[in-house]
Amino acid sequence: MGDERGNGVDGAIGLLLALGAAGGTARVAAMQAATGLPRASLFRIARTLAAEGLLELSRGEMRMGAACRALLRAHAARMRAEDAARMQRMPALPRPVLGPDGTTPIALSRPALRRVTRRVRIGFANASLDNPWRVALMHSVEHAAAALGERVERLDIRSAAQNGPRQAEDIAALAAAGMDGLLVSAVQAPEVSEAVADAQRRGLPVVLVDRGVRADVPHTSFVTTSDRLIGSVTALWLAETLKGEGRVLMLPGHEGAAPARERLASAREVFARFAGITPVDGGWTGWQREEGRRLAGEAIATWGRDIAGVWSDSGLQGIGALQAFVAAGYRAGEIPPHTGGDVNGAYKLAIRNKVPLAAVDYPPAMGMWAVEVLHAALSGRWVPRHVEVPLEVTITRGRATRSVRPNVWAEDHVRWDLPDDLILSTGLGPAYNPRSFRIHYPGNRYNRSAGRLMEEKL
User: Fold this and answer.
1) What is the pLDDT of residue 451?
2) What is the spatial distance between Cα 167 and Cα 408, in angstroms, rounded to a whole number?
3) What does DSSP say about strands 221-224 and 386-388: parallel, antiparallel, or unpaired?
């Protein structure tokens, strides 16, 4: 009797699975062939399931019953709730980039081939930790991994100190350590491109974040934002603020980084439309405060008050430029207009010294999106090959121009209660403080960021 009941249960399960595989509706003959059940047994099981609402029988056809449909609806609702909860953890929706015609969606990458039943192991190869922005990017990645909870088995982070061969070694080491997928904020070097290509060839999905690799190198996705927009919007604001006249000191970021080169090229294109604007090269700053201060100091010594404005692609060096003008004896209201935000201290200095300022913050929140994209690929989903995180324009109050208006005033964006080296637009919430940041995720120790642990090894 026990065996009989067991066989009946197995038969019922087999019938429902076969019906599900057939799309929920099938002919009786097809179900008999799929299950291998004798016709009499098939009908006896079907009538029992129909009595419970799990199946419907009608003129030689079987279909899912009302009870099964209710279970599927409940499952779909739970999936929608999980998706909504995940979206609420993120600061803003990313927008996929369209093709040249403005309407064709970009290409998608196939899901990664892996056992989806296992928790994922993620490796992050960071270009460096040599400035506050890169630390904030790492914190964004760590936050996203922690938010995924038990779906992540391990997050392993390496920093290459802007060294291409070293980052290539980091990528190879992470692959050898059994990571399921990689995040890479790439040092622009041929060795890194080859390491990314090798990982993809071995079936290890790579999501690039912030900085990419050569266009011909295969990768799963690239999560970034519009560097050309950063360059063009800030340059247009500065040119209009100066009414199209004056010498502009150019202080771009890191010469070896594609974002800096793209921002600079875009800014120069805008300035070229204003015959009275004369850009002068101050030198590459490497996105370093002290280098920005040194180069701005040299420019002040050369041109003095003939400098009508300062274009920086980031507040990382922009804060140094502002400090140089203060050190040179410029009083509040005398410092020429500047561009470049990101850093809390840059906003503080500009507001205190009544400096007209415009910025398009480069959001470290892209680290969170990169984790989400990689996890989606590892979970068997198609993902976009290119994702852009939205940008916001920040301007000191009353300094909007005809063409450039702010999403937020600098006076509302700045955090007077938090450190100068705070990077804004992280998406980590109003309480985020880089100096006291603590996080728990699989693979770290004592709820401390990987950056702290790397510092301890030095």
Assistant:
1) 67
2) 37
3) parallel
Domain-by-domain residue ranges, the chain?
A: 2-67, 108-224+368-387+431-457, 227-360
CA distances from 116 to 151, 173, 376, 380, 411 (A): 10, 23, 11, 7, 47
Q: Tell me: the pLDDT tens digits for 136-179?
A: 999 999 999 999 998 999 999 999 999 999 999 999 999 999 99
Q: What residue type is assigned to position 446 of the chain?
A: Y
Which pLDDT band, with edges at 50, 70 and 90, does 9 fall under? confident
Q: What is the pTM of this model?
A: 0.75
Residues 173, 158: contact at Cβ < 8 Å?
yes
Residue type at 292 in one-letter notation: G
Count of residues for the chain?
A: 458
H or E element in which residue 242 lies: none
Instruction: Write the burial class of residue 404 (CB in 10 Å: 0-12 exposed, 13-18 middle, 19+ buried).
Output: buried
Order of strands across the sheet with 393-395? 276-281, 245-251, 307-312, 338-339, 357-360, 393-395, 408-409
pLDDT digits (tens, 9 = 90+) for 36-84: 889 888 889 989 999 988 889 888 899 988 988 888 888 888 877 776 6
Of the candidates 315, 378, 334, the one whose C-alpha atom is nearest the C-alpha of residue 152 is: 378
Assigned CATH class of 2-67: mainly alpha
Give the H/E segment covering residue 399: none
Name the DSSP class of 188.
S
**CATH assignment, 108-224+368-387+431-457:** 3.40.50.2300
User: What is the model's pLDDT at position 295?
Assistant: 98
Specify whether domain 227-360 bears CATH 3.40.50.2300.
Answer: yes
pLDDT for 102 equals 59
Q: How far apart, in Å, are the Cα atoms of 456 and each of 45, 127, 445, 449?
A: 66, 19, 12, 11
User: Hey, do 108-224+368-387+431-457 and 227-360 end up sharing a CATH topology, with the first three levels equal?
Assistant: yes
Rounded average pLDDT over 207-235: 95
| pLDDT-wise least confident of 90-94, 95-99, 148-152, 347-351 | 90-94
Q: How distant, in Å, are the alpha carbons of 91, 110, 228, 424 from that of 287? A: 25, 36, 17, 16
Q: Which of 32, 2, 29 is nearest to 14 (CA)?
A: 32
- Print burial letters for 295-324: b (CB count within 10 Å at least 16), e (below 16): bbbebbeeeeeebbbbbbbbbbbbbbbbbb
If you average pLDDT over residues 185-191, what whole number do you get? 95
